[in-house]
Input
Amino acid sequence: MNGMVSLTINGLVVSVETGMTVLEAARFMGFPIPTLCHMDGLSPYGACRLCVVEIGEAPRARLVSSCTYPVEEGLIVRTASRRVIRARKMILELLLASCPQSKIIQDLAAAHDVQQQRFRQEYEDCILCGLCVRICEEQMMAKAIGFRNRGEKRSIGTPFDLHSDECRLCGACMYVCPACQLRCTYTEPEKAVCGGCANLSPPCIEKEPFDDMMCYMTPCVACEIQKD
Amino acid sequence: MRLHSPDDLKTLQAELCNNGHWTGRTLIIPAGTCGRASGANDLIRKAREELLRGEFAHLIRVRVTGCHGFCETEPSILVEPDGLFYPRLKPADVGRLVEATARGEIVEDLVWLDRETGARIPHQRDVPFFKKQRRTILSRSEQVDPEDIDSYLRNGGYSALLKALEGGDPAWVLQEVKSSGLRGRGGAGFPTGVKWEMLAKQPSTQGKFLVCNADEGDPGAYMDRSILEGNPHSILEGMLIGGYATGATDGIIYVRNEYPLAIKHLHIALEQARGLGLLGENILGTGYSFDIQVVQGAGAFVCGEETALIRSIEGQMGEPRQRPPFPIQSGIHGRPTSINNVETWANIPIIIEQGAEVFAETGTEHNSGTKIFSLVGKIRNTGLVEVPMGITIREIVHEIGGGPVGNAEIKAVQTGGPSGGCIPASRFELPIDYDGLAKAGSIMGSGGMIVMDGHTCVVDVAKYFMGFLKDESCGKCFTCRKGTQRMHEILDDITQGRGTHDQLDLLEELALVVKDTTMCGLGQTAANPVLSTLRYFRDEYLAHIDQQRCPAGVCKPLITFSINENCSGCQACAKACPADAIYGERKQRHTIDTSKCIKCGTCRSVCKRDAVEVA
Amino acid sequence: MEAVVDEREVVAIVDRHNAQCGGLIATLEEVQTVYGYLPERALRVVANITDHSLVDVYGVATFYRSFSLRPRGRNHVCACLGTACHVRGAPMVVEELERRLGIRAGETSADGEYTLETVNCLGACALGPIVVVNGTYHSKVEAASVKKLLKKTQPEAARLASEPKVAVSSL
Output
């Protein structure tokens, strides 16, 4: 079923392969859509909602996450309508309110002209985008970490919070993390991978001394900074 | 015994009717979960004892059934064929009742007492609660012993299946359901016939699934439990007809595990139906095969959402996924799947039996048939009410429900559970149908109708729903997970008297974005409780913010308890107070030490003289 | 009080459910019925012999509310917090239960006597607030009636305290 479908993106009629997502089609045409939980090579997940676009026509127009929505014949897509922008700004405000220390989130917020957040400030180190879970399962074939619990108690980690036999300490989870968290630290530093350098952000560096941890990058910028 | 042809079934039905023909009276005792919680088991035991003791067994029989709907008056007894209704019985009353029934008399002082006129109303059909209802589905629960398939067959059970199979034309069945105009009773109101037609058209080499969604998660709604407990075979029959019409091969009933009695009755029903050859291979020798299994949930509201429900049936976490592809195209294990609600399934045998035209006569255009609501909260008559679509809220609340409790004034009803909204008393003339409720900012939902009076704080209710949703959200979509948490945070601030006008604006702004940007129905409707209360009760929010006052006297940080001059000094409150905050001499007016008071409300609930005030 | 897990029993449970729809959830439900909770060892066995990974099994075990990863008390008290119960004062009932038992909802008392849980709706809305004590439904519970309700359960500690005083002193 490798036919083509045509759809309208921001008024432009385009023809793309079936099976593509709206995000892929829009990016292919050069329309920028911000994402946090999307990564080429990993299955689409639709968790961060930053990539929402407006589809259909009023009064039945609605927002969908472009990274998970498949292209359809005749679909009308707007990637930057007022409704989309309003939603995106609120999402970034929520992200800033929870995870202000992430450089990636800060940059996104700045790029979308989000100057302040109006909620009670939290300092969480995970936005549950699930990139680490997917890279661990899909690229590293390990399945050492996964989602646990639900709702506000949802978290990512290993079963029982114990060192996982499946974990090969590859560090991929930390490499992809947009929120900058030191993962896999558990209780035994010598079995953990240092993630200090992956995101280069201050909270990580303040957290723990990395001396005992295994390091998969040389030179390690984080360690260098700490030495100063 | 296995039935090998439609004629076998007809013979069996006829035999059961003849052998079971009963000219005496029957004491019908509802014993669903609600009945048992209020002591129906004692009543049953006592009734059986009395029958033995008085040697009335040739005159009177006892039939234990599921819930009839008027749960608040349970344990109760309905006497057939007279239709006498005895509410709120004590085991001690049963002896008199049995003796009078044996003589064909009415026990005047035990029948319904109309509080307004002071008159005694012996017949169920005349009791105001029942009078305005159109009990098509619920009345069947009075006739059927849920643990006995013979009882169902005797009452014409599986005749609709027989009619469908004998017609020999699945397309006709499909067309009947379509022309009946039946819309999904789970909440969204999608036309059932259209859904089935889509399923029937789906190509599949590995079979198709029909699912009965009995994950009735909306807190405050329990009609599905009542049907499953009271008449499980009607669901099996509905699904068998559905399987025949759509070409589906497998049926699954997904029940929430909070309903142990429903699960038990379903298992019994499945076993009995299978034993008779009404389920499985080559049903009644017609070549039609269909089997049903029960899958138990494990406590997750989000699993009522179709894609999450499918994940759960597959044994995974109940996380919804993007649609398309729709379950109709790719559902359980990738096979085409149609999911319908319990009440929808219960309507199917009725449609086939009566014919689509007769069914569509009830209700209004585009909203045919009856709908069961669970009328609960601050209302005099609580229970399940089955009414024709298009009836007004006022009729349900004031005529069937009997209006407010005590002197309070009803200010709103909340429909649709956590996904729904509040409708203020000023709009009670609104006819209830899918589209009307949506326009008023609520939804039909599965049919929960929670009545709120002057002692219910709408901000507190909105906070309650948000607290519910932040726990029940699967947590996948950032805006649903964080959005519900942040809305709860703001509502909490407001109920604590810390809220600001800026926060109120932010709450509204956030609510609209949560509605817009989440993937599944849970998130998309999560903002409704906030948006609808803001729309109709903004002044109550403002009272919390501007005056640090909770007009309903609910939000603890904003209220104080005190004792007024009604106090007789009986000391009941002082003894009950867990914080030892009440003091006063015997026969003297008591005082509450506000510095010690933990505002638990115990004093108010033990006081018999209305002497505890909240301001 | 970790339960001792008999692996053969877990294997037998898995065999009963694995092939069916909803197999994993049904398996865990039965494991919980046997042990009163989901012991770590049992979950590892389930992951080993089914094609679900441990991450999946653990995810399911934590996602659904009816599963508990910690041993539960001898007496199980469950309060309904559905909407109808809420507007009729269920939060005060829960607070009173918490105060009397000295634990928060979701916790088990240190002596292993009581587990207090809340549930989002039991579907007996006309009779709220509902509290289920060891499987028995109690309707129209008020904060003031909590004390009486708990008296019906017989805490091990209280029984011991009232009976063997002589025995203790003779030691």
Summary: Chain A has eight helices and seven strands.
